[in-house]
Amino acid sequence: MEFGKPLEIQVTVDRTESSVGQELTFQVEATGTQLDQVSIQFGDGEGESLSAMGADTASMRVTHAYLQAGTFQVTATALQITGESVSDGIEVRILDAP
């Protein structure tokens, strides 16, 4: 059941390549109708979530530092109280510390 604003989410990062131990800053923007939760998974087993408490928009700005080198798929998800969800992803590459 779709009503009100279309359910959308976007995740961005300040840079897509970094070194082990350096923080990256992620921005998540979600819109919809009666959002329940917005979450981000960093691809390394870590993640964060934000309760949207029925709002029509939600945003979160989080930092994360990776502890090992590799390529990681970061996924942000918005969930409406109706149970509908939408996700967006971005890939980051982490290099060994210089």
Brief overview, please?
The chain is an all-beta fold and 98 residues long. It is built from no helices and eight strands. It has a five-stranded mixed beta sheet with strand order 2-8-7-4-5, with no helix packed on it.
Helices, strands, pairings?
Layout: E1 8-13, E2 17-19, E3 23-31, E4 35-41, E5 47-51, E6 57-65, E7 70-80, E8 85-95
Parallel strand pairs: 2-8
Antiparallel strand pairs: 1-3, 3-6, 4-5, 4-7, 7-8
Please characterize this protein's 3D structure.
The chain has 98 residues and is mostly beta strands. The chain has one domain (8-91): Sandwich (Immunoglobulin-like). 0% of the residues lie in helices and 62% in strands. It has a five-stranded mixed beta sheet with strand order 2-8-7-4-5, with no helix packed on it. A three-stranded antiparallel beta sheet has the order 1-3-6, with no helix packed on it. β7 (70-80) and β8 form a beta hairpin. It is elongated and about 50 Å long. The N and C termini lie far apart (51 Å). The mean pLDDT is 95.
**What distance lies between the first and last C-alpha atoms, to the nearest angstrom?**
51 Å
Oligomerization status of the protein chains: single chain
Strand content: over 45%
By CATH, the superfamily comes out as Immunoglobulins
Secondary-structure element series: EEEEEEEE
- What is the CATH third-level topology name? Immunoglobulin-like
Structural classification: mainly beta
Tally of contiguous helical segments: 0
Domain module tally: 1
Largest beta sheet: strand ordering: 2-8-7-4-5
Mean pLDDT: 95
Q: Bin the helical content.
A: under 10%
Using only C-alpha atoms, the radius of gyration works out to 14 Å
Highest CATH level, the class: Mainly Beta
The tally of strands reads 8
Described by strand count, sense and barrel closure, the largest sheet is: 5 strands, mixed
